[in-house]
Amino acid sequence: MTKTGMIDFRGVNKWFGSLNVLKDITLSVEPREVVVVCGPSGSGKSTLIRCVNGLEAIKDGDLVVDGQRLGDPATNMTQLRTEIGFVFQSFNLYPHKTALENVTLAPIHVRKIPRAEAEKAGRELLAKVGLADKVNAYPAQLSGGQQQRVAIARCLGMRPKIMLFDEPTSALDPEMISEVLDVMVAVAEEGMTMMVVTHEMGFARKVAQRVVFMDAGAIVESGTPDEFFSHPRTDRSRAFLSKILRH
Amino acid sequence: MIWQQLQSLAGSYPLALRGLGMTVVLSLISLVLGTLLGFGLGILRTGGNRLIDSLIGAWVDLIRGTPFLVQIFLIFFILPEFGIELDAFTAGIIALTNLAACFICEIVVAGIRSVPTGQVEAALASGLSRWQRMRQVVLPQAMRIVLPPLVGQYVLLIKDSSVVSAIGLTDLTRVGWLVVQRVPNGLLVFFLVGVGYFIVCYPLIMLARRLERRMGAAHGEVQL
């Protein structure tokens, strides 16, 4: 048995119809590691992290998360998901619930934490992401950046072992990006295991131990942020970097 | 002469009240049962099992595609042939409940399907069980879409209940038929019958309109 990481892809393949969206992915994410996944749109990076919490099923290969093999009948997917926070590009806050209710819903119903205790923890989390004054606001009353921070607090409320971010700042106005990135940096610095799909290279340089570059469903290149940004090894990654760094 | 007719009509008010009562009781029971059953079927139908989905779908299509009068006759006259004896009241309740459930099922399915997939994914990702996802995330949002046509469906149900007079239940419509035999003024009698139905239905029509307006509001919380 080889050493296993927190998230372990071994020869993972996935098809959408005849399209091979994930090609022979092998990647291991260690506990407390922050991995940034980047690549052109349609390269399979979102699909990659959606596989980790089972929002997408893999076709073949092995994917082991927190010691549990996905697709194995013995794996309780609902249970495993409570250990994995997922932040969506489009926030996906529950529009009929306040910020606080969004944060406390799963702790109360899944973790069975008493309401008063969950609300206390929820208020603290919202304060931590800078939204102490918005606990009773509905998502529609919040800006995009505020919504995304509530979404991160919602994940943190479950005290997950892993957090996945699917282009968390792509739907935001430029002036709101940094407030979300600041929260993500804080989460990373507390030692969270993270996989982050993003093109925010400043974020990658600051907290990522590794950058993974994907193209057409395959991992093309993988290295430390410094290596990747300063000395990209392939033509495809050079072409990609020249496009996103030019402006 | 019209004076005599009016006097005679006034004399039949206990019968009219009984008929109105029967209409309200029939409608209310089948409305409650039909709502429960309709929500159950709608939730089952969106559960992702294709066999269950198509079975319920076929039943709903069958019921929606046949006249209610025929359904009531089938239940009341054909079931006894198979040894299931039903009194008219039970047969009426079954037929009306089934009809309501089928229409409500379709309304609920439309409501559930209107909830964005991202909502279900968010609930899934936080480890909510299937029932918790439905109860906490999907249904409250679906209710925005469901409530106005649901109340509208109740109005239709109350009016459809007039068909049960065909199997001998003394509801408001049948009272009309009985009274018109004594007071030969169909126009007047059935005008009053219509007024009776309208009095029951109008508050619901108002409610549907109010709900529609409230559902359009900012974040549209729905208290279940």
Descriptive labels:
heterodimer, A: about 250 residues, alpha/beta, 6-stranded mixed sheet, 4-stranded antiparallel sheet, 9 helices, 10 strands, about 35% helix, globular, B: about 220 residues, mainly alpha, MetI-like fold, about 0% strand, elongated, disordered C terminus
Fold and architecture overview:
The complex is a heterodimer of chains A (247) and B (224). With 247 residues, chain A is an alpha/beta fold. Chain A contains nine helices and ten strands. In chain A, the strands form two sheets. Chain A has a six-stranded mixed β-sheet with strand order 6-7-8-3-9-10, with helices on both faces. In chain A, α3 runs parallel beside α5 and α5 runs parallel beside α6. The longest helix of chain A is centred in the last third of the chain and has 16 residues. In chain B, α2 packs across α5 and α5 packs across α7. The radius of gyration of chain B is 21 Å and the shape is elongated. Chain B starts with a helix and ends in a 9-residue tail after the last helix. The interface between A and B is medium-sized, with 27 and 22 residues. Chain A: Belongs to the ABC transporter superfamily. Chain A: It is a peripheral membrane protein. Chain A: One of its GO terms (cellular component) is plasma membrane. Chain A: It is found in: Cell membrane.
